[in-house]
Predict the 3D structure of the following.
Amino acid sequence: MRKAYKDQVGNAAEINLMLTSMLRYAGIKAYPILVSTRQNGIPIFPTREGYNYVVTYVNLPTGVMLLDATNKYSAPNVLPFRTLNWQGRVIAEHGGSELIDLFPKEASKNTTYLMVNLDDHGAVNGDFRTMKTNHSAMLYREEYIETNKEQYLEKLENKYKGMEISDFKVDNESDLSKPVMETYKFVKENQADIIGDKIYFSPLLFLKTTENPFKLEKREFPVDFGFPTFNKYMIVINIPEGYKIETFPKPTVLALPDQLGSYKYNLSFTDNRIQVIIESEINQPIISSLYYESLKAYFSKIIETEAETIVLTKA
C-alpha cells in the first residue's frame, strides 16, 4: 500500500484497502470486503483463490454503505457492475468475518419523456429526454464519457434505425450526486402505416419492445438482471390536424409472481393529443429459474401489448 500511495498506481485491493485505512483514520468504522467478480465465479468456501477483488464496508448510524474507489463513476452503494456477484465476505475485527449481500437494495431508475408530433405521412419529430440514476447512470457515464462523441451519436441514431438527432446535450455527466440527463431533438420517418384515409401506429413508436429476451424452452440457471430497475415512459403525441381517434388500446396491468416485477400501461387522449404512461419494474437482481416460464410469458405479453395500434381516421 505504501508503494501504491507513493506511485499513485495500485490494484483494486491496494486502492480500497487504502480507502478503508483513510476512513478508519477519520474515526469511521470501515472494513474490507472480499469479493469474487462476475468473471471469477462464485466461491462456495472462503479460500484465497475464491476471491479476487476488495471493496470497502462502512458501518454508519444511518446504515451500511459499500464503496469502491477504483471506478470514478461509482458512488456510495453503487458498486461497479463487475462486483455485483451474490455475496462478499466482510473481514471484521479480531479475525472474524461474515457474508454480506452485494446487490443494491435501491432500484436504478430510467425515466423517459417524449414530446412527439405525428404528421399525415407517418413521420414523427419532437423532443426526447431521459434521466438515469444509480447503476443505470453509472453504466451510461462509463459508455458516454469514454466514447468519441461523434461515434456515440452515430450509434444512438443507428439504435433507432435511421433517426436524425440534433441539439444533443448531456447534463450532470460528472456530478455523481445527480441523475445523468440526456436530451435531444429528433426526426424519424415511417413510424405509422397509412392505409386509405386511416393512420395506424404503436403508441410507443420506436420505443416499443419487439423481441422477447427469453427464447429457450427451459432454463436451469437463474436469470441475472444485475440490479433492480424501475423504468417509466411518459409520451405525449400530437396527432395530425384533420384526424380523430377511431380505436385505442386498453390499459394493461401485468405482474410477476411473488412481487418480482410489474408492468402498467395506461393511455388517455383529448381531441388532438394522446398521452401514454408506462411503468415497469424488476424488483430482484437475480430471479430463480423456477420463474422462467412466468418471465417468458410476462415479456411475451408486454410485446403483445405494445404492438397494439392506435387508429386515426380523417374527421
